[in-house]
Amino acid sequence: MKLKSLLLALALVAALASSALAGTPATVHFFVVPAAVSDEKLHDLNTYLIKNAGGFTASRSTGGDIGTLGKEYAPENVSYMVSAPKNMGKEIGAYLKQKLGLKQVFLLTWPAERLAE
């Protein structure tokens, strides 16, 4: 009897898991890394983001950086978008400075809500 109850409870939890995530608060993080960073360091960053935030989206981009306001300068960058269940801005910023050697970090965060499919 206990086993049947346990199995029924597990089945209900599995069935409701996707709807339980709907409306779950999250924080979106957007940051830019210079494309000149080595492939090894980018791989390590990607691994860090998968392990600590659950994943990421990255794309190559061209644009400015912190020091280019008003100048005609367009370095190549890698733009990252990361959604996590909590604000990881300080942790990600510290990682970018310590592990990638960036002196300045461009990082934006904003609250989000995960929506049902």
What's the short version?
Helix content is 38%, strand content 28%. The protein is of the alpha+beta class and 117 residues long. It is globular and about 40 Å long.
Topology:
Elements: H1 2-21, E1 25-34, H2 39-53, E2 57-62, E3 76-84, H3 89-98, E4 106-113
Antiparallel strand pairs: 1-3, 1-4, 2-3
Describe this structure in words.
- The two termini are 35 Å apart.
- The longest helix has 20 residues, at 2-21.
- A 4-stranded antiparallel beta sheet has the order 2-3-1-4, covered by helices on one side.
- It has helices spanning 2-21, 39-53, 89-98, and strands spanning 25-34, 57-62, 76-84, 106-113.
- It has one domain: Alpha-Beta Plaits (2-Layer Sandwich), CATH 3.30.70.120.
- It is of the alpha+beta class and 117 residues long.
- Residues 1-21 have low confidence and may be disordered.
Descriptors:
117 residues; alpha+beta; Alpha-Beta Plaits; four-stranded antiparallel sheet; 3 helices; 4 strands; 38% helix; 28% strand; globular
Helix percentage range: 25-40%
- Spatial strand arrangement across the major sheet: 2-3-1-4
Reported CATH architecture: 2-Layer Sandwich
CATH topology: Alpha-Beta Plaits
Mean pLDDT over the residues:
79
**Distance separating the two termini:** 35 Å
Beta-strand percentage range: 25-35%
Q: How can the largest sheet be summarized? A: 4 strands, antiparallel
Give the overall form.
Answer: globular
Query: What is the name of the CATH class?
Result: Alpha Beta
What's the helix-strand series? HEHEEHE
